């Protein structure tokens, strides 16, 4: 099962404790920039690149609802536009108190484009988190290598 970790704790060493702390902090900070006048459900995401940079994103809604953008995809698109294509981890924050925030299916597929072996830190409003591998969030997935078969 999942173990809940207070913010200072880290599992089996993926990002080091300091970069994990910063990643968790940055997703909370990104949440404050969310533009969500319709859902009133702010989400922030922070992406740790292979080079150690942290790039954040927030959800951006639109009056034409289907044009809204999730925080996770906003962070990935920003990272790509800044030249990053290899990622180690992502942390996601919302205001939910009773359950951990999880990425939607579309975000899971966009994350999958860049591999299955990275960590996703799912948080609650109090800062506790669980860590999942992307392949756990999107099992039996379809990715770029499947187009080469």
Automatic annotation (TrEMBL):
EC number: 3.5.4.5
Enzyme class: hydrolase
A Gene Ontology BP annotation from the UniProt entry: nucleobase-containing small molecule metabolic process
Obligatory cofactor(s): Zn(2+)
Residues the entry annotates as binding Zn(2+): 70, 104, 107
Active-site residues per Swiss-Prot or TrEMBL entry: 72 (proton donor)
InterPro entries: APOBEC/CMP_deaminase_Zn-bd, CMP_dCMP_dom, Cyt/Deoxycyt_deaminase, Cyt_deam_tetra, Cytidine_deaminase-like
GO terms of molecular function: cytidine deaminase activity; identical protein binding; zinc ion binding
Residues that coordinate or bind substrate: 59-65
Protein name: Cytidine deaminase
Species annotation: Turnix velox (Little buttonquail)
């Amino acid at each position: 099962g999942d173990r809940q970790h207070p913010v200072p704790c880290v599992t089996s060493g993926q990002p080091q404790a300091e970069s994990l702390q910063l990643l968790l902090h940055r997703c909370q900070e990104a949440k404050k920039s969310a533009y969500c006048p319709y859902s009133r459900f702010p989400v922030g995401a922070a992406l740790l690149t292979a080079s150690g940079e942290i790039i954040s994103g927030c959800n951006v809604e639109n009056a034409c609802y289907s044009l809204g953008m999730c925080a996770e995809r906003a962070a990935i698109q920003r990272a790509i536009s800044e030249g990053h294509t290899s990622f180690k981890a992502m942390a996601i924050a919302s205001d939910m108190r009773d359950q951990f925030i999880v990425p939607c299916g579309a975000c899971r597929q966009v994350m999958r484009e860049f591999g299955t072996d990275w960590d996703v830190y799912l948080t609650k409003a109090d800062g506790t988190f669980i860590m999942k591998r992307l392949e756990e969030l999107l099992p039996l997935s379809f990715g770029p290598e499947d187009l080469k078969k």
